[in-house]
Amino acid sequence: MTKDYYKILELTELCTDKDIKAAYRRLARKWHPDIAGNTEEAVKKFKELNEAYQTLSDRLQRYTYDTARKYYNYSSTKKAQTTENNKTTTNPNPNPNPQSAKESKENTKQNNSNFNFNWEELLSKYKKFTNKECKKNTSNQPLPKRGRDINTDVEITISEAINGTTKVVNMLHTCVCPKCGGRKFVNGSICTRCSGNGEVSDYKRFSVKIPSGIKDKSKIRLAGEGEKGLNGGANGDLYITVHIKAPLDYTTEGLNILKTVYITPYEAILGGNISVKTTDGNVTVKITPCTQSGQKIRLAGCGLSSNGNRGDMILTVEIQIPKTVSKEEVELYEKLKNISDKYVNK
Question: What pLDDT shows up at residue 85?
């Protein structure tokens, strides 16, 4: 093993994943060719940093590397001891047997070859073995299963659909038990918080942003907020269906809002101003004299909006006859009738 990845990253074998990432970022900024210069040393150093990080940041590769590293250190120590023993053990015969010397040299060469170690080759073999064993055990181990999606509904007004809003949604949510951390036991006893299930169900509040111009029955997806996955599987999603609450006093036609407004007979004759509620608030609408029942008034830009377009509010005027009138009103209507008859007869 010619490379010590821990030394390259200026770490020890006791470092954590967080330490590895921090050390790599720090040294990569220092030795990046764009910063350190596109020299042979910088390119070589940056390549070694990447190689070390790729190995140590992967748990499988790091485990294999650590195993190989310990074996290499042991082999190196053994080799050093053997060399030292060869030096201290001298042949008292000043004229040693040439054949014995040759055999001793061959044995030493063979022993040294045993200490040649290729870390990359070992890792490759270990990966092949691991993949093979994983394939064998696939049928015996439960597969990861994605959690189910959750669906719920939220109701908004037309005004909220036009301008956008934020709604708070409460959903029953399953999460890891905060007391035992999913381990199911606390101090050797079954967790009293989750009763040994490792999970607890509780209501969770979601603040959902409703974008402006949203259409009726549109769905908003909150990724990963559904039911929890099993055996390491991904969580499901939460889908929120938006319903636009139709008001009782008007209907819609495309982006236009259709509404009926009621005026009194004297307002129809004399004219005047009335207050009309729109999606943007109350506006004052002028009624011209001698307005007829069924006459329409258009309020531009007071309708629904979609993709940058805005509809209108179309008012239909209806003259409302009171259900009860006073004696004085009847007398005035009689007088008005007589006056109208004179003009008609002429």
Answer: 58
Q: Are strands 238-245 and 150-157 parallel, antiparallel or unpaired?
A: parallel
- For the chain, the maximum distance between any two Cα atoms, rounded to a whole number of angstroms, is 160
In the structure encoding, which two tokens stand for residue 275, read together? 């207050």
Residues 61 and 20: beta-carbon distance below 8 Å? no
For 274-294, what is each residue's pLDDT tens digit?
A: 999 887 788 999 999 999 999
Give dist(CA 99, CA 105) in Å, integer. Answer: 10
Name the H helices within the chain: 5-8, 17-31, 33-36, 40-56, 59-88, 98-114, 119-137, 158-163, 265-270, 327-345
Candidates 237, 206, 209; CA nearest to 223 is 237
Tens of pLDDT, residues 1-15: 567 888 889 988 888
pLDDT of residue 3: 79
Give the sign of the dihedral formed by CA 231, CA 197, CA 175, CA 21.
negative
147 touches 235 (CB < 8 A): yes
Dihedral of alpha carbons 213, 215, 217, 218, sign: negative
Q: What is the pTM for the complete model shown? A: 0.41
- pLDDT, greater one: 213 or 53: 53
Indicate the pLDDT class of residue 264, thresholds 50, 70 and 90.
very high
Q: Cα 18–23–29 angle (5° rounding)?
A: 130
pLDDT value for 83: 57
Q: What is the C-alpha separation between 7 and 265, in angstroms, rounded?
A: 95
DSSP for residue 229: P
The two three-digit tokens of residue 174, written as one number? 């399953």
Whether 243 and 189 have beta carbons less than 8 Å apart is answered as no
Q: How far is the C-alpha of 206 from the C-alpha of 180, rounded, in Å?
A: 25
CB atoms within 10 A of CB 263: 20
The token pair at 260 is: 């009926």
